[in-house]
Amino acid sequence: MPLSEAQYALSDTWKEILGQGAVWQSVLRELPQNKVVQQIAASASRRPSWLFVGCGTSYYLAEAAANSWSQLTGEPASALPASDLLLHRNLPRKDDSDLRAVVISRSGKTSEAVRAAVNSRSSIFIYGAPGNGKTTLARRIPSLLGGPIVVPVALDIGGGEVMTIFDGSVHRLETNQPADRRWRRVARPLVQVGGEFQREMFDPTWEDGSRTYGAPLQVKANGGVLLIDDLGRQRVSPKQILDRLLVPLEQDTDYMNLSATGRKVEVPFQAQLALSTNLRPAELLDEAYLRRLSYKVLMPDPTWDMWTRIFERERQRLSIPPDPNALEMISTLYSGRPLRGNHPRDLLERLVDVSSARGVRPQLTPDLVEAAWHTLFITS
Q1: How far apart are CA 288 and CA 36, in angstroms?
Q2: 118 burial level (CB within 10 Å; 0-12, 13-18, 19+)
Q3: Domain range for residue 315?
Q4: Which of 47, 81, 202, 242 gives 20 to 30 Å between its CA and that of 306?
Q5: Are strands 212-214 and 205-207 parallel, antiparallel or unpaired?
Q6: Residues 222 and 338 occupy one common structural domain
Q7: Same-domain check for residues 155 and 281
Q8: Whole-prediction pTM value?
Q9: Are residues 150 and 221 in the same domain?
Q10: Residue 258 belongs to a domain with what CATH number?
Q11: Radius of gyration of the chain measured on its C-alpha atoms
Q12: Same domain as 368, residue 259
């Protein structure tokens, strides 16, 4: 039902429209003194070109941001609708290695903006508080890259040496395999590592039994996604990880040393790099390194409305009867604690566990909710 004129005048949309002028005036006053802007402008050895991407009304913000950025830094900047990137992935110049992309989303969760980042096949850096779905988002990227691909079972790397590529633990076989048995049709691979990652995992491994090399992580991820999760939790520093990957990212070719012979070989690098962390980006990488990561995606804390929608979905999944008073009680229990996207699921699953331990049916009673709450959080 359409809003009346009086109702529309009280809506958040109308208030946001009226407030745009003051917001932009404030931004334009503060940006020239912003230290980050000054550092970027001062440290740029080349003049990078900036591409601001937005969808819907965010595209108009992208246009304004591009113009403002050019005026503030003197660097060339332009705007592009996210839908154009989705449909025409080669619109940004592929040979422009100094192109910097910025995705603008008013909500911080616009799916089309994320899809644009994926469609560009550029590196993506996902950050935010723990429990808000960074790893879940990254693990879904392969499904956005397209249909199955064909990978070789092994690769002749010259000098009579062979590198095995196909790995049943990484490559999921599809139906209708090629008649040529040197190839396998597989779903887009996802190679994921976390805190256990070591830099040596980027090197081929010599296997004495078969007298062949095993392909490293990034080669097995070709055509899919190489996900380095929990960045900053590894024994090797984030800078060392990026130093190893900068050349493959920029040249689409990786150069690897063979331990048995000392030879260096070239292997295609066609994996999309995804990094995720719940640490502060500025504590992991300085500005020069962050610039090398094409897309930065913040996974924000959910709003209360989003939290309740997740809660309702999980309640239905676990077949727990509804109770209109439960959400009010949970809101009181939070008492300033930050919301996280995983809380509804974890809270309700613990409620089911507590109910099972007591031999009663899971229900959103105050007693069960409070008991589940105290098993989920550490209270002082």
Answers
A1: 11
A2: buried
A3: 304-376
A4: 81
A5: antiparallel
A6: no
A7: yes
A8: 0.69
A9: yes
A10: 3.40.50.300
A11: 25
A12: no
115 exposure class (CB count in 10 Å sphere: 0-12, 13-18, 19+): middle
- Rounded Cα–Cα distance for residues 220 and 151 (Å): 9
Q: Spell out the residues 6+ positions from residue 65 whose beta carbon is closer than 8 angstroms to its own.
A: 52, 77, 79, 102, 104
Token pair of 374 as six digits: 């105290």
Q: List the pLDDT tens digit at each of the 380 positions of the chain.
A: 455 566 555 656 666 667 666 766 766 666 666 665 565 555 544 556 788 887 666 777 778 788 877 777 777 888 877 666 655 655 655 445 566 777 766 555 445 556 666 677 788 899 999 998 889 888 988 888 888 999 999 999 988 899 999 999 999 999 999 999 999 999 999 999 999 999 999 999 998 888 899 999 999 999 999 999 999 999 999 999 999 998 998 889 999 988 878 889 999 999 999 999 999 988 899 888 888 888 888 888 888 988 999 999 999 999 999 998 999 999 999 988 999 999 999 999 999 999 999 999 999 999 999 999 999 988 76
Query: Are residues 265 and 215 both part of a single domain?
Result: yes
Which residues touch 306 (CB under 8 Å, ≥6 apart)?
A: 341
231/254 Cα distance (integer angstroms): 21
- The DSSP line for 342-379 is THHHHHHHHHHHHHHHHTS-----HHHHHHHHHHHS--
Helix ranges (DSSP H) in the chain: 5-9, 12-30, 35-43, 57-73, 82-87, 111-119, 134-139, 141-144, 217-220, 238-251, 281-284, 287-292, 304-317, 326-334, 343-358, 366-376
Dihedrals φ, ψ of 227, to 5°? -105, 120
